[in-house]
Write a structure and sequence with these properties.
Helix content of chain B: 40-55%
Structural class of chain A: alpha+beta
Oligomer: heterodimer
Radius of gyration of chain A: 40 Å
Strand content of chain A: 25-35%
Mean pLDDT of chain B: 77
Distance between the termini of chain B: 147 Å
Structural class of chain B: alpha+beta
Helix content of chain A: 40-55%
Low-confidence stretches of chain B: 207-253
Radius of gyration of chain B: 61 Å
Distance between the termini of chain A: 92 Å
Shape of chain B: rod-shaped
Number of strands of chain B: 4
Number of helices of chain B: 8
Low-confidence stretches of chain A: none
């Protein structure tokens, strides 16, 4: 090889080759290796993020599926009853008014409202007189099948000579704070007080 | 190394003599000796093959395979994105479940509340009592938790005993017993014996209800025979003891 009227010596040729190799190596590092490493690192980082999201979603799906299964089981057992959101007192009073409208007389007395977590209990006593036992059964049926979850507690019943039935009973309407609107009448949470 | 070719210069005429010293004249030609490199194919071909081989190996392992690794990583990311989209879509199917569950759940109710027998079934049970041979206006009952106390008046202790058995056949009844019985000779026939029942209730177990529906086995036949014998003895004895107008309490242990 002869450039500028002079041949390169062997050492110079070797150095030129080394230089070419180094330049090629640098070019490989900057244009190939670094790009590939960055791409792989980015992909792995995104993969981790996506996997975390997927895990969280799967847990949520399992949680919701278990809730759905619980409700399906309650429905199969015939124990599915709805709890309205707090404060449902007016609807409950209207309901009692409807079912007791045909009684001879009645008396309703609401006592304490209690709260345990999201569970609200509205206790009341009910006294009414019906013309016969069948009517008393119908009222009990309506109470137990109420749209507002109602559990009848203690009951006292007597029948007079004319066949009139007098019922005294305690019962509880259940409400939930989920979707409810707190107001001044909302009692303190006993679950928080005990913790 | 320059070879100089010299040639003699002819003495030409006067013209050449005139030109001498005026213009330079070159009397020699410079030639350069250049070595002609011959290619040694025995070395060149293997060297080229070696270089090409190294380039191929380098390209395969250091470039191509690494690009494949990047593609694989990107493909996995795409797959995960697709899985995420699918699960988010599946989550949409459960919209409203959490809210519905909050309104349907029994989690906030106590064990005692959940174990209370359905009051409608209790009223049905009492209606069977009312449909028996008892003085209806005498019937009064109280229900506290799952314990039902019934007071009524019947024709005889036998009749009350039979009524107790009828009550016990109800799926929600765990046990029924007569706690007190008073006879009043002066009362009308239908209302001679005033009795108090204690009925222990439970939520009907499915297996027990199925067995009762399925019918009786041999042990029931024996039990019925024994009960009939007791009734026969008990009824006669009590009637003979309570033959006068005095009332006497019979308390079953």
């Amino acid at each position: 090889m002869k450039i500028m009227s002079r041949e390169f010596s062997k050492a110079e040729k070797a150095l030129i080759i080394v230089l070419i190799v180094v330049l090629l190596g640098l070019a490989y590092y900057y244009f190939v290796d670094r790009t590939i490493r960055d791409s792989i690192a980015s992909a792995q980082s995104e993969e981790q993020m996506l996997q975390t999201e997927i895990d969280a979603l799967e847990q949520r799906l399992m949680y919701l599926q278990s809730k759905q299964n619980s409700m399906d089981k309650l429905q199969e057992e015939g124990n599915l009853s709805w709890m309205n959101s707090y404060n449902n007192s007016k609807a409950e009073v209207a309901f009692l008014n409807d079912i007791l409208a045909d009684t001879i007389n009645y008396a309703v007395s609401f006592s304490d409202v209690t709260r345990n977590g999201d569970q609200i209990r509205r206790r009341f006593t009910l006294q009414y007189t019906t013309k016969n036992y069948k009517q008393a059964q119908e009222i009990m049926e309506k109470l137990c099948n109420s749209e507002n979850r109602c559990l009848v507690g203690d009951v006292r019943c007597s029948i007079d000579a004319e066949g009139k039935v007098t019922m005294n009973q305690s019962a509880t309407f259940y409400e939930t704070m989920v979707g409810g609107t707190p107001d001044a009448a909302l009692p303190k949470d006993s679950a928080e007080a005990n913790s | 190394m320059a070879l100089e070719l010299t040639f003699k210069k002819k003495n030409s005429g006067s013209a050449s003599t005139k030109m001498r010293g005026k213009l330079p004249s070159k009397k020699s030609i410079n030639l350069v000796l250049v070595k002609k490199n011959k290619i040694n194919w025995k070395i060149a071909i293997p060297a080229v093959i070696l270089i090409l081989g190294l380039a191929f190996v380098f390209g395969k392992f250091m470039v191509y395979d690494r690009i494949l690794a990047v593609d694989a990583a990107n493909a996995k990311v795409s797959q995960l994105q697709s899985t995420l989209a699918t699960e988010q879509k599946a989550l949409d199917n459960f919209s409203g479940v959490e809210d519905a569950y909050a309104h349907y759940t029994l989690d906030g109710m106590t064990e005692e509340e959940l174990n209370l027998v359905d009051r409608r079934l209790v009223l049905d049970l009492v209606s069977t009592v009312l449909s028996s041979e008892v003085k209806k206006e005498s019937v009064s009952w109280t229900l506290s938790g799952n314990i039902l106390n019934i007071e009524l008046t019947g024709r005889s202790l036998n009749a009350l005993n039979q009524l107790a058995r009828t009550i016990e056949e109800n799926p929600i009844v765990d046990s029924c017993s007569i706690t007190t019985a008073n006879k009043n000779e002066n009362a009308e026939v239908a209302g001679k014996v005033k009795g108090k029942f204690v009925v222990y209730l439970h939520n009907p177990p499915e297996e027990a209800a199925a067995e009762k529906d399925a019918g009786s086995d041999g042990s029931d036949i024996v039990e019925n025979a024994v009960n009939a014998a007791i009734d026969a003895a008990l009824g006669d004895t009590i009637d003979s003891i309570l033959g006068d107008s005095r009332s006497e309490e019979v308390i079953e242990p």
